Structure formats: C-alpha cells, structure tokens
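stage 2 :: seqdesign
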C-alpha cells in the first residue's frame, strides 16, 4: 500500500476526530443517553433539503472513492461541515468539559483509530475509516453505550455520600415530580416553608441522579429541617433508583401530560415512571384535577395517605380559588386564608398546602405568614426591556399546560396602541402529538397576537400553518438571536413581547 493511501487514511481519521466537537455537545445536552446523537444528526438532515442533498451526494461519492484516492478527502471535508446548521461553536450555553465528557471523547478517539488500524492491517485501505467517518455520530453513540455502566458505577461513591448525608438526620424529605410545574411547585413550597423552617432545596436543573447527589454533597447543612428534592426522568426506573437512596417521606406528583412523550412513547408510560416516586413514601400529594392520577391514586389509598389538591373542586382535600391576584385557600371545603401571587402559581399553591397537611403543620399559620409569592425565573416573568417595551419571559420549560397562562398575560398587558409579538420555537418532545399541539398553540395564539416570530425549523411547519390559517403575519428565523435582533429593530415602547420557550443549540 503506497504512502498516498496511508496519508488519505490519516486525514480521514483526523477528520473523524474533529467531528467529536459537535457530537460531545449533543451528548452532554442529552444527558449522555446512548442513541441521542444519531437521533439529532438525522433531525438536522431532515430539517433542510440541502442537508438531505449533501448526505445523498456523500453516498454517491463513496462509490467513486473506490476508484479515485482523492475522493475520500472530499467526503471527509464535507462531513466536517454537514449537517449544515449544526455548528462547532455553541450558541445557547458553553459545553462543560467534565471528566465524563473527556472519557467519552477519548474512547470515541480510540474506536476511530482502532477502525483505521483494522482497515489498514487487513488490506481494506481507507474504506473502513471512510465508513467510520460517514457514521462518526453513530460511533460516538457506541462510546456512550459502552461507558454507560462504567460511569454509573464510578459515580456510586458520590451518590452513596449524598445518601449518607441526607439520611443522617431524621428530617422530612419531600420528593416532587410530574410532567410540568415541578420547579414552580418546589419554589412555591420553599417560599412558604421558609417562613418558619430552614429548608434544603435542590437548585434548578439539578433533578437527575448526579445533579441531586451534587446538590446534597455541596449544599446540605446540619441545621436544615426539611429537604425538598425535585426529580426528573427520561425513562422508567430512574425515579425509583433516586428514591432508593433519597427515600422521600412525602411524594408530590404535579400532573401527567405529553411532555417527554417522544422518549416515553405513551401517557401510561409517563404515569408509571412518575409513580415510582410513591413506592417508598408514606404520604402522597397529587394534582386532584388530573384524571389519570386520580385513578392511579385509588391503588395507593389503602397503604398511604393521599391528598388530592385541586384548583377547580372544593370537594378535594385542598382547593385554591384564584381571582385578580388572590389565591383563596380551602382545606376540606373550609376557608383557611389567602395568598397573593400570579395565576401561574395556583396549582403549585394547592399542592404546597397538601404538603403542609402531610407534614401535619399548622396550615393557617404558614398561610398567614406568607403574604405573597414570586414566580420562578424565566417562567412567565414580566420585565421591562432596555428599549422600554414589556417582555413576558417564559423561556424555560414551556409545556402545553402552561401556555394559556402565558397567552392570558399577553392579552391583559398593554393598551389599545400596543402590538403583541410572540417569539417561539414551539414545544418539543411531544412525540406523535407534537405537530398537533404546536398547530393548536399557533391557532390559540392567533386570537391575541399581531405578529409571530418563529425560531428554528423544529416546529416551523406546524406553527406556520396555524398562523397562516388565521391570517397572522409571521417571520421565520434560524435562531433566537436573529429573531431578537429583528424584533429590536421594529419594536416600540408600548408593545408587548412573549418569549415562549427557547431551544438549546443542538436542535434544528
């Protein structure tokens, strides 16, 4: 084999290694779940006709590579720049170069180099290396899959340390999960309990196994009297594993909705995954307006204390009525008191009162001590921009259940001279319902807004059709930065802007 073939193989191998920069970003954004990189690669391919054409062209070029030694170099260069749009430079947040990320990338390098060595040693020239370059996204997924159990075992002492810390004191532990309003409920409950107790609470986004362990190891103190742990899940078994060492005494389920339906496949699977939080708890606090939860709760009532918390029915254990900034609280159909706060907090207040009951605390005392409550950051916060216009910021955790609150706020604010703008990429991880839900969102928003700014290509078609059918003016932008730049060029001080959701940069 001549030096040209060896040099070609070396360049292909190097190009495959360079591609790791993009794959490791997806890996970290998607919590190192094996298969996620391949899934997002093809999302980008499908998002643009140019990407589909370039992928088809690269396969055609592979045939020519059998006869022309320079063609593989063209393919490897092409694969560095495709799919178009998925850049090497992060836009929404930097990549955190952790030890785990380094191990995944180094093992990916190892696999790429081994494939090249095998290709050379068995007389295949650069063919196997070229195949690895074409499917480098898949190779990185295999690195994640191979290291998955190793990473879990490696982190076990870290988790055991957190378990020992939180179980060393006999304090109530409250676990919170659900398809929506987890963080809002956690923060609402924390504000109420903080009136009389020192509360340990997991920070925002620290809701998986390692995040919770990190929060406990670094933030739990000896004088904490109550612990509140938010728990998220991407698959069955995750919450059960967290509960095995956190051991919540009280479990809260905020509701079941088609959030993460793409991963979980059905609402029944979502219910099963969220219900794992109940298994070790003595008391369960649920959204009493959720029929799926109510039906499931019938299985728990013989073994656990179940508190159904409603925003519609005073027949529930807890009910919260909202009117003009006031939340009137009823326990067993008896008026207890009032808390002031935005409508978005209505369900979270109801669930928080259910937790107070489960803790056997004086509900009236805590309610009287709590004058008003604040929303969580980036969840329908109303702020004034530097240009003078009003912004409704619901950038994080947008879901089908919270949209009506966002749109109500948009409708209520401003004057007759105000124009109302919606900036959104739509909602994600809704499985087969994603198109229909985003179309319905666009249709509902069309009754209120004057113009829409669609961000990205993930839900472009569903949103565009919804706005077109209602004669709403819209513009499409590749990312949020471009949308904001355009908006700032036309906005007036009296106008209102709703930012509904934001997508990380590994989404089309």
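stage 2 :: out
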């Amino acid at each position: 084999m001549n030096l040209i073939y060896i040099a070609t193989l070396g360049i292909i191998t190097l190009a495959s290694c360079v591609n790791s920069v993009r794959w490791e970003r997806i890996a970290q954004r998607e919590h190192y779940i094996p298969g996620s990189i391949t899934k997002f690669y093809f999302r980008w391919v499908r998002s643009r006709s140019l990407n589909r054409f370039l992928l088809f062209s690269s396969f055609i070029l592979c045939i020519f590579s059998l006869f022309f030694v320079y063609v593989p170099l063209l393919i490897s260069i092409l694969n560095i720049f495709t799919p178009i749009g998925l850049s090497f430079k992060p836009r929404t947040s930097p990549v955190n170069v952790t030890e785990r990320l380094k191990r995944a990338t180094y093992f990916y390098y190892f696999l790429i180099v081994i494939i090249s060595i095998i290709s050379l040693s068995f007389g295949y020239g650069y063919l196997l290396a070229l195949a690895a370059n074409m499917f480098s996204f898949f190779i990185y997924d295999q690195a994640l899959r191979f290291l998955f159990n190793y990473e879990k075992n490696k982190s076990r002492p870290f988790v055991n340390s957190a378990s020992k810390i939180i179980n060393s004191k006999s304090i109530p532990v409250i676990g919170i999960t659900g398809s929506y309003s987890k963080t809002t409920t956690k923060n609402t409950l924390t504000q109420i309990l903080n009136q009389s107790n020192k509360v340990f609470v997991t920070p925002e986004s620290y809701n998986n196994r390692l995040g919770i362990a990190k929060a406990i190891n670094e933030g739990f103190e000896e004088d904490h009297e109550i612990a509140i742990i938010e728990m998220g899940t991407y698959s069955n078994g995750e919450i059960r594993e967290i509960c095995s060492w956190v051991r919540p005494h009280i479990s809260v389920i905020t509701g079941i909705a088609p959030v993460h339906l793409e991963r979980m496949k059905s609402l029944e699977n979502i219910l099963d995954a969220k219900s794992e939080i109940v298994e070790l708890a003595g008391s369960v606090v649920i959204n009493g307006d959720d029929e799926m939860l109510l039906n499931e709760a019938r299985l728990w009532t013989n073994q656990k204390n179940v508190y159904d918390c409603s925003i519609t029915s005073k027949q529930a254990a807890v009910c919260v009525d909202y009117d003009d900034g006031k939340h009137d609280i009823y326990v067993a159909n008896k008026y207890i008191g009032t808390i002031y706060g935005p409508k978005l907090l209505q369900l979270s207040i109801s669930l928080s009162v259910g937790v107070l009951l489960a803790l056997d605390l004086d509900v009236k005392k805590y309610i009287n001590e709590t004058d008003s409550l604040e929303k969580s950051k980036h969840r329908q916060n109303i702020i004034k921009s530097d240009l003078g216009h009003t912004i409704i910021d619901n950038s994080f955790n947008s879901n089908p259940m919270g949209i009506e609150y966002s749109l109500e706020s948009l409708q209520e604010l401003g004057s007759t001279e105000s124009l109302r703008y919606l900036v959104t990429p739509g909602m994600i991880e809704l499985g087969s319902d994603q198109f229909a839900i985003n179309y319905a969102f666009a249709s509902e928003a069309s009754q209120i807004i004057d113009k829409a700014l669609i961000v990205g290509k993930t839900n472009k078609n569903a949103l565009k059709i919804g706005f077109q059918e209602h004669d709403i003016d819209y513009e499409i932008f590749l990312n949020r930065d471009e949308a904001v730049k355009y908006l700032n060029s036309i906005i007036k001080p009296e106008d209102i802007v709703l930012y509904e959701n934001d997508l990380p940069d590994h989404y089309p």
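stage 3 :: structure notes
- The two ends are 42 Å apart (CA to CA).
- Residues 3-151 form one domain.
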